[in-house]
Structure to design on (136 residues):
């Protein structure tokens, strides 16, 4: 199935996904370069986690259109990143609540790199909606 043949509901979910992932990317980047542990960091961190959890949940309802491997004719390999994102959000939250800053840091860096950078890279491959929109 090519990006142009996504079911109509999938296009709506993709646009909602973009509306949540773009501010998450901005906040995540800001969080990576700013001072940690401040009230602002904690507030933005909560917003970031909610955005990342919501966007990962949305992606689970978007069918995979690239690659030959599909589970239940819906889930593709890209969906692994959705589950890793959910796991990293929960792990990072629980780590900071228990006072384990190093584990929190590990989860948050992994979430940023895997959930935003790596997943973001894969959204631009040919055959995916964003890849087709950007590269024709």
């Amino acid at each position: 199935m090519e990006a142009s043949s996504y079911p109509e509901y999938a296009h709506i979910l993709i646009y909602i996904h973009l509306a949540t992932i773009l501010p998450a990317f901005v906040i995540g980047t800001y969080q990576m370069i700013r001072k940690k542990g401040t009230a602002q960091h904690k507030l933005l961190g909560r917003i970031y986690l909610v955005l990342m959890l919501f966007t990962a949940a949305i992606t689970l309802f978007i069918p995979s259109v690239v690659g030959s491997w599909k589970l239940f004719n819906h889930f593709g390999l890209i969906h692994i990143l959705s589950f890793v994102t959910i796991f990293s959000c929960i792990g990072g939250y629980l780590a900071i609540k228990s006072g384990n800053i190093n584990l929190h840091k590990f989860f948050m860096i992994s979430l940023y790199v895997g959930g935003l950078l790596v997943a973001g890279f894969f959204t631009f491959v040919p055959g995916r909606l964003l890849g087709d929109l950007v590269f024709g």
Notes: The chain has a mean pLDDT of 85. The two ends are 16 Å apart (CA to CA). The CA atoms of residues 95 and 101 lie 7 Å apart. Residues 3-135 form one domain.
